[in-house]
Amino acid sequence: MTILLYIGGYGRSGSTLLETLAASCPRTVACGEVAIAATRQIASPCTCGQPYETCRLWGTLLTPERPPGSWSHEALTIALREQIKDQDAILIDSSKTAWGSLSKPFKFPRRLRSEFKLIHLVRDPHGVCWSNVTGRRRRKGKLLPNIENSPRRYVRHGRTLLG
Predict the structure, then answer these.
(1) Distance between CA atoms of 144 and 131, rounded to whole angstroms?
(2) Cα 90–53–51 angle (5° rounding)?
(3) What is the pTM of this model?
(4) For FRET with 149, which of 16, 27, 105, 117 sits at 20 to 30 Å CA-CA?
């Protein structure tokens, strides 16, 4: 039996740290934010350190015939789970749940029943706002300007609070 452990919450809430700690268990497979791989091209290496094309888990799924962006989040997560189903393991998807992905973790319990676990991380909103303003962001591979002393930081605070 392979359990899907879904880490939900808002960005910069500690989900990457939790995933890294949980992945230290030998029977745990950390997949990062599967929703990103399902919806767009990914450039970073897998959590195992290999490029996605040569990773033993992702390499068979993300092929030229089925590239990133051609999957639904649910289909890719289930396919990843099928890859390790005989290993009696835990698969971690840390796709989070903010904004447009609020319903994502609620699709899995209907299909997986007791083989689905959800961890909802909640961080103090002040800390999340501070991380959003001081943290460096990237868009399409380019580093965005720091807005710590810009009036735009209030817009980002508002978006964070709504999220």
Answers:
(1) 15
(2) 75
(3) 0.74
(4) 16
